């Protein structure tokens, strides 16, 4: 079979791997992904195209960081700023750009490539009459299909932009060389991490001792990196460009720093080498760039070793070689069988905990309410770059808290979807089920909203911020409860009862639109109310107005909850 | 008229439609104490919809259902305390281990921890599922998932077992064990609603069989009665022949077999 034919076949393997990634990512919502696919045959194709376009757009936007830096370097040299300082800043900023690029690739590539490693997608292929060599080729071609747009964007956008802005062939070629090394490095790391990620989220290791913690740490790190990559870049550009003109006094320190950190293979040696060429050999000696060249040589060697490792991983996946490390199952015996009976509400909470820890989508839904409330606190760190006024700070906090509470409700609601058979057969009292969900929200929302307050301990605004955050947390709780009850009302109303399962499928789209619209309108009303009160009153007056309103709303929701889910009657 | 005074499950003139499809159409049947009732029908005949209506998961357009003398629409929780359900697709929490799942079930059903632990250990051993006790359900094979589901359905000694293709994916030994479980269940007075496509199994274990097609009950009775209903077939017939005849699939299947012979031979 020739390469063209094999490439055609890899298209089907790729579609399978992308679907597998979508299913892995969907966690407890597998059925809804399948439903979307049933309704729209182009669903997978559209998702593929969308993911690739987003990645290319992000990389294109990111290019502003080094390009605006080029302009500053030229300006700084003309203004007589020390070359040591320019070299340091240029090296670090370009290195930062390479690091961001790497983070973006992980962010957009990880979930698409994980499917290659979790679903044994090459298994069915191995039943067909392909030679081993052909199987390997199909595997590599499938991988290329997973990362083609990202690969091209990562490799070419940077040299192209450099060519346009510097109009120098040599600098363009250097940037192309560095870009090639970075791209090879990034993709090899992506393959290695995706394999690890696949083991952590699925398969034999998924229930191994300590893997829950690994999974959470992995996801927290992943979310923190990617959020920083997306949010941080917007604030970095206006901050770092003026730094070129703020020359420090202790230049000797930076001179030695330039020598040593320029040796760091990734991402700094490339960043330094490029800056050296931008500064020009009128200002810098060839001897000075030797550490950077050495760093790049080490980088090339690392690339080679990583390439060997990732090719081995791919080869193992393609021929479905069993990894002995992942086959260590615990074999239970009769003595392990011991049932602990707890109250139904506790049973729901225990079940949810186990399921959340093993499901990526649920972890993300639960982590976001913890991560989002930090954003306004970080924005408020630097006066002039964020909100130094407490009211602006409170509004942003309120919006993020409401978003977080919606995410919790969405995440917790999706948990029920996988166990429909069990739910159908168990004598579940819906009141208990709903109560367990509300209990989760009552832990996560206040904790997530109040944790960032520790950043302001001892600061003049501390008590004001604490009070605002408490009031915000209550809004989040009310909002979450409202969304949960409304969702059940729209999708789970039966003749004599309500259920958490989606039983009313008619007008599903219209109901989802209604749910979204009502949430949005309510959010706007709350935010406008908050703003008007917060800007016109002091914190005591503000609390005296908002808190009673929150109490009234809480009692109203409690009344609705009791109406929808009355205490069960006892049969004689 | 048959005496249905002791029926544990009684379905009368049940109808349910989805948009333009009549899934269940004026369906009536009952299951007596200690009886295994087989519900047979081709794909899309309305078996699963009927079961969902009995469980109170769907609301009927018309008709009555009485489960242990209770109404599924109003007494859902009480009914579920007294029945066990095995579905065709084991849609059990795949990100839990069997251990966590059984703990959850025992807690929701408010069972006695000590007693249920002993019983569970025996069931797990009997169905050779003990070694998977602490593995994720998602990593188990179809058959092992089915075993977990079957144990989950019988753990609380239900009075009625509703089983939709319970033997799918099971190995020979487990099939034997499950058949034995069903028999013991009926010996102590329990009833079974057994839905299957495998005619030999229905013929082997069911006391009475209801054949359902396009949501309607087209025939009901024990094997001998059904054979008489389909008497045009001949003497040497099995339930499969009777089923195909009564669901009007006998002629079309002959045509398909003829075409296959031409293609493959």
What do you see in this structure?
The complex is a heterodimer of chains A (572) and B (265). Chain A is mainly α and 572 residues long. The relative contact order of chain A is 0.08. Chain A folds into 2 domains: 48-113 and 143-322, no CATH class; 344-564, no CATH class. In chain A, 75% of the residues lie in helices and 0% in strands. Chain A is globular and about 90 Å long. Chain A is built from 22 helices and no strands. Chain B has a domain at 7-89 and 159-221: Rossmann fold (3-Layer(aba) Sandwich). In chain B, α6 links the parallel β6 (160-164) and β7. Chain B is α/β, with parallel strands linked by helices and 265 residues long. The interface between A and B is large, with 49 and 60 residues.
In short:
Chain A is mainly α. Helix content of chain A is 75%, strand content 0%. Chain A has 2 domains: 48-113 and 143-322, no CATH class; 344-564, no CATH class.
By oligomeric state, this entry counts as heterodimer
Q: What proportion of the residues of chain B form beta strands (DSSP E)? A: 15-25%
Strand order of the largest sheet of chain B: 5-6-7-3-8-9
Average pLDDT metric of chain A? 81
Descriptive labels:
heterodimer, A: mainly alpha, 2 domains, 22 helices, globular, B: 265 residues, alpha/beta, Rossmann fold, 6-stranded mixed sheet, 3-stranded antiparallel sheet, 10 helices, 9 strands
List the SSEs and their pairings.
The complex is a heterodimer of chains A (572) and B (265).
Chain A: H1 3-26, H2 30-39, H3 43-62, H4 64-78, H5 83-113, H6 115-118, H7 123-126, H8 132-166, H9 169-201, H10 211-240, H11 251-261, H12 265-279, H13 290-318, H14 344-357, H15 360-371, H16 374-379, H17 390-415, H18 420-425, H19 430-450, H20 462-491, H21 508-536, H22 539-564
Chain B: E1 7-18, E2 21-32, E3 36-40, H1 47-54, E4 62-67, H2 76-82, E5 83-86, H3 98-108, H4 113-126, H5 142-154, E6 160-164, H6 172-187, E7 191-196, H7 199-205, E8 208-213, E9 216-221, H8 223-229, H9 239-246, H10 250-264
Parallel strand pairs in B: 3-7, 3-8, 5-6, 6-7
Antiparallel strand pairs in B: 1-2, 1-4, 8-9
């Amino acid at each position: 079979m020739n390469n063209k034919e094999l490439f055609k076949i890899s298209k089907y393997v790729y579609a399978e791997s992308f679907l597998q990634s979508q299913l892995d990512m969907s966690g407890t919502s597998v059925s809804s992904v399948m439903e979307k696919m049933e309704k729209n045959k182009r669903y997978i194709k559209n998702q593929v195209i969308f993911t690739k376009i987003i990645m290319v757009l992000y990389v294109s936007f990111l290019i502003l960081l080094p390009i605006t830096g080029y302009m500053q370097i030229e300006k700084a040299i003309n203004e007589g700023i020390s070359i040591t300082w320019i070299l340091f800043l240029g090296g670090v900023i370009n290195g930062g750009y390479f690091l961001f690029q790497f983070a973006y690739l992980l962010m957009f590539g990880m979930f698409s490539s994980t499917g290659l490693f979790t679903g044994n997608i090459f298994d069915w292929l191995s039943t067909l009459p392909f030679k081993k060599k052909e199987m390997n080729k199909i595997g590599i071609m499938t991988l290329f299909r997973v990362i083609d747009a990202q690969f091209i964007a990562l490799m070419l956008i940077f040299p192209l932009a450099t060519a346009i802005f510097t109009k120098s062939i040599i600098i363009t070629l250097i940037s192309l060389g560095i870009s090639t090394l970075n791209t090879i490095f990034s993709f090899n790391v992506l393959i290695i991490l995706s394999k690890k990620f696949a083991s952590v989220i699925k398969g034999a290791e998924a229930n191994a001792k300590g893997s829950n913690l690994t999974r959470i740490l992995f996801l927290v790190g992943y979310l923190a990196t990617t959020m920083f990559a997306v949010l941080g870049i917007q604030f970095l550009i206006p901050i770092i460009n003026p730094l070129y003109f703020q020359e420090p006094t202790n230049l000797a320190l930076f001179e030695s720093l330039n020598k040593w950190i320029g040796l760091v293979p990734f991402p700094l040696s490339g960043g330094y080498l490029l800056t050296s060429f931008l500064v020009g050999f009128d200002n810098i000696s060839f001897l000075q760039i030797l550490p950077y060249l050495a760093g790049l040589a080490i980088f090339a060697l690392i690339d080679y070793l990583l390439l060997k490792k990732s090719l081995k991983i791919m080869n193992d996946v393609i021929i479905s070689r069993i990894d002995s490390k992942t086959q260590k199952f615990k074999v239970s015996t009769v003595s392990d069988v011991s049932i602990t009976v707890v109250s139904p509400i506790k049973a729901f909470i225990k079940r949810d905990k186990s399921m959340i820890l093993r499901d990526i989508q649920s972890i993300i839904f639960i982590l976001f309410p913890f991560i989002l409330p930090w954003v306004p606190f970080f924005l408020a760190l630097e006066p002039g770059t964020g909100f130094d006024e407490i009211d602006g700070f409170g509004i942003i906090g309120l919006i993020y808290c409401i978003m977080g509470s919606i995410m919790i409700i969405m995440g917790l609601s999706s948990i029920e979807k996988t166990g429909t058979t069990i739910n159908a057969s168990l004598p579940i009292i819906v009141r208990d089920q709903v109560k367990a969900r509300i209990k989760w929200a009552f832990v996560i929302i206040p904790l997530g909203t109040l944790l960032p307050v520790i950043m302001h301990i001892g600061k003049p605004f501390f008590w004001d911020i604490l009070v605002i955050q408490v009031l915000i947390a209550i809004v989040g709780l009310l909002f979450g409860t409202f969304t949960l009850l409304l969702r059940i009302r729209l999708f789970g109303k039966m003749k004599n009862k309500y259920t958490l399962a989606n039983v009313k499928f008619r007008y599903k789209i219209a109901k989802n639109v209604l749910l979204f619209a009502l949430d949005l309108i309510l959010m706007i009303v709350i935010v406008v109310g908050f703003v008007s009160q917060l800007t016109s009153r002091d914190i005591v007056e503000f609390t005296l107005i908002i808190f009673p309103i929150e109490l009234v709303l809480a009692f109203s929701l409690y009344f609705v909850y009791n109406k929808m889910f009355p205490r069960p009657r006892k049969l004689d | 008229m048959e005496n249905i005074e002791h029926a544990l499950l009684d379905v009368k003139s049940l109808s349910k439609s989805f948009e333009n499809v009549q899934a269940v159409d004026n369906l009536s049947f009952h299951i007596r104490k200690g009886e295994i009732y087989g519900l047979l029908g081709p794909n899309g005949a309305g078996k699963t919809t009927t079961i969902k209506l009995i469980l109170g998961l769907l609301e009927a357009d018309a008709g009555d259902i009485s489960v242990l003398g209770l109404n599924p629409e109003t007494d859902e929780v009480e009914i579920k305390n007294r029945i066990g359900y095995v579905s065709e697709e084991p849609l059990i929490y795949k990100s839990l281990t069997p251990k966590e799942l059984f703990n959850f079930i025992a807690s929701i059903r408010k069972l006695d921890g000590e007693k249920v632990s002993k019983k569970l250990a025996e069931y797990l051993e009997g169905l050779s599922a003990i070694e998977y006790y602490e593995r994720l359900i998602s990593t188990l094979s179809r058959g092992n998932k089915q075993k977990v589901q079957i144990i989950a359905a019988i753990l609380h000694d239900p009075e009625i077992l509703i089983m939709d293709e319970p033997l799918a994916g099971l190995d020979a030994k487990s099939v034997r064990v499950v058949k034995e479980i069903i028999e013991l269940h009926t010996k102590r007075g329990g009833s079974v609603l057994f839905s299957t496509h495998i005619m030999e199994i229905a013929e082997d274990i069911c006391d009475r069989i209801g054949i359902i097609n396009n949501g309607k009950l087209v025939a009901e009775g024990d094997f001998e009665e059904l054979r008489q209903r389909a008497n045009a077939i001949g003497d040497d017939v099995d339930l499969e022949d009777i089923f195909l005849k009564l669901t009007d699939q006998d002629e079309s299947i002959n045509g398909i077999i003829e075409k296959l012979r031409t293609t493959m031979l």
